[in-house]
Amino acid sequence: MAAAAMQERESESLKSTAEFSIRRAQSWDIPLLEYVERSAADIFRTVNLGFLADGDTVDPAALRAMAQANHLWVATNSFDQPIGFVGGEYLSGNFHIVEISVAKEFQGKGVGKALMTTLVEHISREGYKSITLTTYRNLPWNGPWYSRLGFFEVNAHDMGRDYLDLLDSEAQHGLDVRSRCVMRKIL
To answer: Is the entire prediction scored with pTM above 0.85?
Structure first.
C-alpha cells in the first residue's frame, strides 16, 4: 500500500528538469494554452501552411474536458507557466491525441518528447492498448518525429468511421488530406 501511495505521489509530480517540468493541467492553465498553440504553429509558416498558425486553436471547453478527465498535461517553465501541452480523448477504443504543442522558443529541447513520454506512461496505466493521432505525413516535426517515438501510419479505413470522419473534418478546415495520415502506437 505504501509503495502504491509513493508511486502515485511520484506520478503526480511527473517529470522535471532544470529547464521545464511536466504536470497535469489545471483550470488556470487553460486560457494560457492558446498562446502556446499559436506559437507552436508558427513553424507551419516555413512550409507555406501559415493558415494553420492563424486558424482556430483547440476549444477551451474541449481542453477543460481533457483536464477534468486527467488527459491533459502541460510542460511549464521555472515560473510554472505553460510552454507546451498534450491532450487527448477516447476514440473508437484508442486514446487519440487531439493536440500536442510546444511554444516556438522551446522547440527542439526535448519538451515534446517528455510530454509524449508522460502521456504514454499514464495512458498505459489506464489500460489503453494504443494511441492514435492525425498528422502531416512528411513534415519533419510531424510524421517522421512520431515515427521515432514508435508510431506507424495506418489506413484510416481500417481504423473505422470515426477516423474517416476526423480526416473529413480536417479537410473541411482546409487541411490537404493527401498529405495527412492517421498514425498509431501500440502500447
So the answer is: yes
